[in-house]
Structures are given as structure tokens and as C-alpha cells.
UniProtKB/TrEMBL annotation:
PANTHER family documented for this protein: CELLULOSE SYNTHASE OPERON PROTEIN C, TPR REPEAT-CONTAINING PROTEIN MJ0798
UniProt-recorded name of the protein: Tetratricopeptide repeat protein
Keyword NADP listed: no
Superkingdom of this protein's organism: Bacteria
Gene3D superfamilies found in the cross-reference section: Glycogen Phosphorylase B, Tetratricopeptide repeat domain
This protein's record includes keyword Cell membrane: no
Length: 586
């Protein structure tokens, strides 16, 4: 029976191997459990593999079975158990010490103990410096968390790779090939990459240097990133992710046509939703009719691929099919449900498109996020006393069961054929506030959103910088910050209204006496613009598509927005002070 089990395993028939291993459990539990564990592992059935690994380790607590148990614990999200086991196994100091250390390095990385993970990777490299797989583990420790450290590690590898190439050319390094078929053998032996010069160059040009170019992009060292990407194009013709990242770098470098071409190249290789999203953002950023029309259509891919973002894929698909067949006529005199699938800012921004939908449909059922429901209801009551534009609009707390079609709010420009130059003249269902009559101007401030912390496009600014500007002016300062003030003690000169804001209606009510708002790119900036409160939006040098081109920021949703791209502290300070003095009389 064991011969049959081994035969199926070594011929990659893991289903049959597992089947016969189960039959053989009572006769030879050691071999049967081992092959049952290995076959399950090979078939990515990590739950079963874990069960078998626990059984065999209990019977035969060897380091190899412990290592396989630790692997399967990690794959089943039992990280703490895996780490505890690996740390115990390492105390044995046996022949699997290096392999156990590497697995522990991986486990430490998962839970964020990155310094310890890096240290273990360095120890492994000191013992086997020509192992390119080890190098890849090492350089990726900080890849998602500390771009500067990750870049430094990539530079280390690039220098070492050049040394390897020189050693190979001078025949000081002889390539070594180890061919192993058994998983246990592969875990027990140190394996090296086939160190030919071509192999090393291919490794650098297709794996390592594209990552380095990406890290330079993340650090906004755009010129260096572009130069490196350009040198790598010929080696990565069939790498969709390469072209996607290259496109982002081109876009942030103001080469919009080059970015468009690179996005199209990525999509020709892999029709991935993320690539389409980013292409749509580029097209809509460019701010002209032709690109905006293409961008509206491409942007729909966010829902075609990510069905969990819609409340009902069936109803959305029904809507897009009707539109593709009949255009906006499909919605004439129909009952339309509008739902929100993105953030608060998008809901406020795209809400002005509801006016066009109300002109087409017999009834528009708008279901905003729960935190915005009361605000929109109250605003609609006020507007309906002044205008007929939104008479057929109803604000709902919950999704209804009776409607003809359902559409996401960000899709209204497509489904209602709203042109770029139409957007700014559509009325938002938020009532414009009367200007306050404060003797001393009240300036609202908002400087931090947690959504921007890990974003490619930074938005947050330092409170101290903002306060320092305003504290020298003859004005009252009002903070609307809800998140991000932990550890900050606001000066007594700052009124903290953020602590009493429970929903967006509270926010709106507390904005009624504000003369001017200074905010980062955030939902509250969209709200103050909708309320026609003079608003200064502070943008990072590379900002979101909603504010237009990097070199010429403007919003076709909010043409009155005062947009300041943060260059350096001194220039930004002067621009804010000049705006407040000249336009807002502060």
C-alpha cells in the first residue's frame, strides 16, 4: 500500500494519494499521516493538512513535522500558535534550524514584528548569501510598511547581484544546481538559484528592479522612478502589473498621454478591475469632454468586478443592460433607486447629479449612508419649499422593495448622460446657507482623515502648521476634527466642535455660523462647498482626480473651490494668508 501511496504522490496525483493514505492510517500511521498531510497541503486544503499535521506531530514530534504543523497553523490564521511552536522548535538547535528560522521570520512579518523578521532574514543570508529566494524574502520585509527601508534593502541586493555577476564572469563563482523532488528533502537542503549570468539579469530586470521603481514612485522620487521604469520596459512586455505601476508614475509625472498608453498596455495583458479604475481616474482627471465620456464608461468596471460593492448585483446588471440597450430612455418615467457605494465625500459630490435623474424618472428613491440620512431629509424639506426640482425625490433610510432600476450614485453621470460642462450648473439637494454676520470671522479647520494614511496620494497636514497661520490673524478658529486628535491638546484659542458631532446633520448645523472653511481633501470640504461656504481646500502636490490636473487644479463639481496645492510651508502659508485677507476679509 505504501508503494501505491508513494507512486501517486510522486506522480502528482494528490487526490489518489490522499485516498489511499486514509485507508492505510491504521496499518502505518506515520507514513499514512505524512502523505495525507503532504497531499492536502499540495491541494491547498490547509484545514485538512492542519488536522493531519497535528496528529503526526503528536505521534512523532520531529522538527520536520513541527515545521509542517507551524506552516499549516499560519495558513489557517493561527499565527500566535505557529510562532510559539517555532520558537520552541528552534531551542532544539537541530538540522532544520535554518528552515525554522525562515518560517519564524515569515510569521513575525505577518504580525508586524518586522525588526525581528529582518534580523532572522539577515542571519539566513549570512549563511547562504547566494540564495536569491532568501534575498527576496529579506527585501520584502518592509515592502508595504516602510518604503525607505525597503528601498535600501533593494539597493543592497542590486549591489550584491552585480558582485555575483562579476564573480561568475571571472569564474570565481561556480553555478550549483540541486535537483530534489521530495518536499522533505527540499526543506532539509539549502537550495540555490541556478546562478548563470542570464538568470541573474532576468531576476533583476523582471523582479527586483521593477519593485525598486515602484518604491521610488511611492516615495515620490518620480524622476528616478521614471528613468528606471523606462530602462525595464523591454524586459517586462508581458507583465501587466509592471505597466500599471509605470502608468501611475507617468500620471504623477504629468505625462497623461504616456500614462493612458501604459494603462491600455496593462489592460491588454490583464483586464483587471483595478487597472480600469485607475484609467478611469486618469481620464476624469484630465477634465475635457472626450476623456470624461470615456472615463464614465470605464469607471463602471468598479461594480462589474466588485459585486460586493453593490447592494444587489442582479439589479445593477439589469440597470446597465437596460442603459446599453435604450440609453437614458430606459429610465424615463421609472422608479429609480439610488444607493451609495463609496465615501461620504463622493455622496455629497455626486448628489448634484440627482437633479438630472429627477428630470428623467417619475420617482427617485435616494438611500444615502445612514450617517447622512437625516441631513438629506432635512435639506430636502427646505429645498422643496423653494423649488420644484426635487419634488419626486425621496430620502430613504432602508432599501425599498418596489423600484424599477437601481443605480450607484457615482454612475448617474453615465446613466443620465451628464456632460462635463453640465455638472457645475446642476443643483445639489443641500440648501445654500445664508452668510453669517460675525463681527469676528470664524474659520473652520479640518486637517486629518484616517483614510489617507496609507494612500498613494497623501492628504493630511500638520495641525501646528495650520494653527500657526491662523493664530496670527484676527479670527476665531473652530475645529471640526472628529478623528485624529488623539494625543493633541488643542490650544484654548481653538473651539473644538468635533467632539459633539454624531452625524452629518450635526456637522451641517455647526457650520451655519462659519465664514470660511480650510480643509484637506475630505467629505467636510465637499459639504461646505455644497453649502456655498467659502472653502480653501489644501491639496498635497499629488492629489486625487476629483481636483483636476496636478499642474492646474480645478474642480468641475465645485468651481468656487479655492484650491491650494501644498508646495512648501512658506509658499503655502503666504497663499492661505493672501486668500483669507483678499477674498474673505480676515
Amino acid at each position: 500500500m505504501l508503494d501505491k501511496i508513494m507512486y501517486y504522490y510522486h506522480n502528482n496525483d494528490y487526490v489518489k494519494c490522499l485516498e489511499y493514505s486514509k485507508i492505510y492510517l491504521n496499518e502505518d500511521p506515520k507514513n499514512a499521516l505524512e502523505y495525507a498531510m503532504m497531499s492536502s497541503f499540495k491541494m491547498n486544503d490547509y484545514h485538512s493538512a492542519l488536522l493531519y499535521a497535528k496528529q503526526i506531530f503528536d505521534l512523532y514530534p520531529t522538527s520536520f513535522y513541527g515545521l509542517m504543523l507551524a506552516k499549516n497553523l499560519l495558513l489557517n490564521a493561527k499565527t500566535d500558535e505557529s510562532i510559539s511552536l517555532l520558537e520552541d522548535l528552534l531551542k532544539r538547535n537541530d538540522f532544520l534550524q535554518d528552515e525554522l528560522s525562515l518560517e519564524l521570520a515569515y510569521a513575525y512579518k505577518i504580525i508586524g514584528r518586522l525588526d525581528e523578521s529582518e534580523s532572522l532574514c539577515k542571519i539566513a543570508l549570512s549563511k547562504d548569501p547566494y540564495n536569491l529566494d532568501l534575498w527576496k524574502d529579506y527585501i520584502e520585509v518592509y515592502f508595504k510598511t516602510d518604503f525607505a527601508k525597503a528601498l535600501q534593502a533593494h539597493d543592497e541586493l542590486c549591489i550584491f547581484a552585480q558582485t555575483m555577476i562579476e564573480q561568475l564572469q571571472n569564474r570565481k563563482l561556480v553555478e550549483k544546481n540541486i535537483i530534489t523532488n521530495n518536499l522533505q528533502d527540499r526543506l532539509q537542503e539549502k537550495t540555490r538559484e541556478n546562478l548563470t549570468i542570464v538568470k541573474v539579469y532576468e531576476y533583476l530586470n523582471t523582479k527586483i528592479l521593477p519593485q525598486k521603481a515602484y518604491l521610488l514612485f511611492k516615495l515620490l522620487r518620480l524622476e528616478e522612478s521614471l528613468k528606471l521604469y523606462e530602462s525595464l520596459c523591454e524586459y517586462n512586455q508581458n507583465n501587466a502589473q509592471f505597466w500599471q505601476n509605470y502608468a501611475k508614475t507617468l500620471e504623477l509625472s504629468l505625462n497623461y498621454q504616456g500614462a493612458y498608453d501604459a494603462y491600455q498596455k496593462a489592460l491588454s495583458l490583464h483586464l483587471h478591475a483595478t487597472y480600469q479604475f485607475d484609467l478611469a481616474y486618469l481620464l476624469m482627471r484630465m477634465g475635457d469632454d472626450k476623456n470624461f465620456e470615456e472615463g464614465k464608461r470605464v469607471y463602471e468596471s468598479r461594480l462589474f468586478y466588485a459585486h460586493n460593492e453593490t447592494f444587489s448585483p442582479y439589479h445593477y446588471n439589469k440597470t446597465i443592460q437596460a442603459f446599453n440597450k435604450e440609453g437614458i430612455a430606459a429610465f424615463k418615467d421609472k422608479k429609480i433607486l439610488v444607493f451609495c457605494e463609496q465615501g461620504f465625500g463622493d455622496t455629497i459630490m455626486y448628489a448634484r447629479c440627482l437633479e438630472k435623474l429627477c428630470q428623467i424618472a417619475s420617482k427617485v428613491l435616494f438611500a444615502p449612508q445612514s450617517a447622512m440620512c437625516v441631513m438629506f431629509k432635512n435639506q430636502l424639506k427646505i429645498i422643496n419649499t423653494q423649488s420644484e426640482k426635487f419634488k419626486n425625490l425621496k430620502i430613504l433610510k432602508d432599501f425599498p422593495s418596489d423600484f424599477d432600476y437601481a443605480m450607484p450614485i457615482c454612475s448617474i453621470p453615465l446613466f443620465c448622460d451628464i456632460k462635463l460642462n453640465e455638472i457645475s450648473i446642476l443643483q445639489t439637494p443641500i440648501n445654500i446657507l445664508d452668510r453669517p454676520k460675525n463681527k469676528k470671522k470664524k474659520i473652520g479647520i479640518f486637517w486629518f482623515t484616517p483614510n489617507a494614511v496609507n494612500s498613494d496620494l497623501l492628504r493630511n497636514i500638520d495641525f501646528v502648521f495650520l494653527f500657526d497661520i491662523l493664530s496670527k490673524l484676527n479670527c476665531e478658529i473652530v475645529s471640526f476634527q472628529v478623528d485624529g486628535i488623539e494625543g493633541i491638546i488643542l490650544p484654548k484659542e481653538v473651539e473644538n466642535r468635533g467632539i459633539k458631532l454624531k452625524n452629518w446633520n450635526d456637522t451641517l448645523e455647526n457650520l451655519k455660523d462659519i465664514d470660511c472653511m480650510i480643509s484637506i481633501d475630505s467629505a467636510i470640504a465637499h459639504l461646505t462647498l455644497a453649502l456655498d461656504i467659502p472653502t480653501i481646500v489644501l491639496l498635497a502636490p499629488r492629489f486625487d482626480w476629483r481636483w483636476g490636473k496636478f499642474e492646474d487644479p480645478k474642480s468641475y463639481f465645485w468651481p468656487k473651490a479655492n484650491l491650494i496645492a501644498f508646495a512648501n510651508e512658506e509658499d503655502t502659508r503666504k497663499k492661505i494668508q493672501e486668500l483669507l485677507k483678499n477674498q474673505f476679509n480676515v
